[in-house]
């Protein structure tokens, strides 16, 4: 487990554009990656989404809005967004996982959040170049 110098599990804070929906994720971020599937493109309005997963019980919704609003996007997942400003926050999967979009983190530049691979290159436009060619070294 990734811990601070004081031996406590690392905390990752973030939230939406307006601040009504906030989160705290504790522990080890899993599967940091980017994705260019059509579902991610449409959810984020971007050609590529950057994600990281945490076990569901490691994520607390701390803002005044509480849990984000969701929309059932597939048989296995719901997309999460702020009910106040509409900002995309991630996906809440049926398996006990919450995938958070890296752009929602207060400090997205932490090495352990760096995407290690890219999923679904096919749907991206041919002119859109992605530099993640192989898994990165683990932090």
Explain this structure.
With 139 residues, the chain is mainly beta. It has a single domain (18-119), classed as glutathione-dependent formaldehyde- activating enzyme (gfa) (Alpha-Beta Complex). The chain is built from one helix and ten strands, in the order βββαβββββββ. It has one helix at 38-44; strands at 11-15, 22-26, 30-35, 49-55, 59-61, 69-72, 77-81, 88-93, 97-101, 117-119. The chain has a seven-stranded mixed β-sheet with strand order 6-7-8-9-4-3-10. The protein has a three-stranded antiparallel β-sheet with strand order 1-2-5, with no helix packed on it. It is globular.
Number of helices: 1
CATH class: Alpha Beta
β content, as a range?
35-45%
What class would the helix/strand composition place it in?
mainly beta
Q: Which sheet architecture does the biggest sheet show?
A: 7 strands, mixed
- At CATH level 3, the topology is glutathione-dependent formaldehyde- activating enzyme (gfa)
Q: How many separate domains?
A: 1
Q: Which regions contain 5 or more consecutive residues with pLDDT less than 50?
A: 134-139
* Spatial arrangement of strands, main beta sheet: 6-7-8-9-4-3-10
- Helical fraction equals under 10%
Please name the fourth-level CATH homologous superfamily.
Answer: glutathione-dependent formaldehyde- activating enzyme (gfa)
End-to-end Cα distance, whole Å, is 12 Å
CATH architectural arrangement: Alpha-Beta Complex
Oligomer: single chain
Overall form? globular
Instruction: Give the number of DSSP strands.
Output: 10
Based on CA atoms alone, the radius of gyration comes out at 15 Å
The overall pLDDT, averaged over residues, is: 89
SSE succession: EEEHEEEEEEE
């Amino acid at each position: 487990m990734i811990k601070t110098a004081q031996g406590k599990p690392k905390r990752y804070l973030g939230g939406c554009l307006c601040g009504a929906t906030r989160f705290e994720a504790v522990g080890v971020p899993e599967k940091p990656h980017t994705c260019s599937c059509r579902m991610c493109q449409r959810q984020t309005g971007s050609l590529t989404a950057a994600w990281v997963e945490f076990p569901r019980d490691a994520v607390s919704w701390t803002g005044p809005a509480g849990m984000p609003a969701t929309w059932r996007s597939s048989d296995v997942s719901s997309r999460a967004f702020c009910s106040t400003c509409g900002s995309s926050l991630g996906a809440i999967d049926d398996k006990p996982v919450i995938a958070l979009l890296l752009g929602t983190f207060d400090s997205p530049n932490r090495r352990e959040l760096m995407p290690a691979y890219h999923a679904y290159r096919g749907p991206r436009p041919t002119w859109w170049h992605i530099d993640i060619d192989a898994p990165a070294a683990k932090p």
